[in-house]
Amino acid sequence: MAATVGCGGGGPAGDTLSGTTGGGAFVIKDAVIATTATWTSSPDPGDSTVIILSDREGLCADIQAGRSHAGSRFLIMYLAAVGAGTMSPITSAGAYPIGPNDAVVPPVSGFAFYSALDAQCAGTAQLAFSGTVTLTDLGAGATSASGRLAIMFEDGSTLGGNFSATSGCPPAAVDAYLSAMPTCS
Question: Are 50 and 185 in contact (CB under 8 A)?
Answer without folding.
Answer: no
